Amino acid sequence: MDTTTIMVILAVVAVLAIIVAFTIQRRRSAKLRERYGAEYSRAVVEAGGRRKGEAELAGREKRMEAFSIRPLSILDRERYVGSWRIVQEEFVDDPAKAVLHADQLVEDVMSAQGYPMTDFEQAAADLSVDHPVVVQNYRAAHEIVRRRRESRIGTEDLRQAMIHYRTLFDELVDQGSGSVATA
After folding, report:
1. Of 5, 109, 174, 180, which residue is the least packed, with the fewest Cβ within 10 Å?
2. Are 61 and 127 in contact, with CB atoms under 8 Å apart?
């Protein structure tokens, strides 16, 4: 083979390698976008770009491989559902206190399932691996709790926090039987 033929073959191989790499990256991005939804967009924006955001999501997945996330036992599930009903009833008399109790109850459920409960941001990132849709509820409710600690907020905001916590709670304790936290 002459030098020109070798150069053409190498150029074709290089172009094919670039096309394959680009296709693999597009598929990876599409899978992450499909799996994480709004959480994908959030990660990309917070990381300052697609590559960094995707690396962050991949890092979350790798981190969670080290933990054994498990469903609640039937007894624990029933106990937590009962506790949720008490929190809902408490909302009538003391909405602010009920929201704080809902926050703690969600953390207790996550901990019982094996989620490592460190700081809020890490807990939300960890939760996003298994529950990428409802993690937005966790963040929204937590933000209301944070604002509540800094200033007085209205009952409507507290009601919204309870709705967010309930959505997350239902997702965490549900074993495919539909909404479980209804009273």
Report:
1. 5
2. no
**Domain shared by 79 and 169, yes or no:** yes
CB 16 within 8 A of CB 8: no
Q: Which residues contact 171 (CB under 8 A, 6 or more apart)?
A: 131, 134
Quick one: tokens of 134? 């409802």
Average pLDDT of adjacent 10-residue blocks, the chain of 183 residues: 88 90 85 88 92 93 92 95 97 94 96 92 94 93 89 90 96 63 42
Q: How far apart are CA 91 and CA 97, in angstroms?
A: 7
31 and 80 together in one domain? no
Q: How far is the C-alpha of 18 from the C-alpha of 121, rounded, in Å?
A: 37
Based on the structure, what is the number of domains in the chain?
A: 2
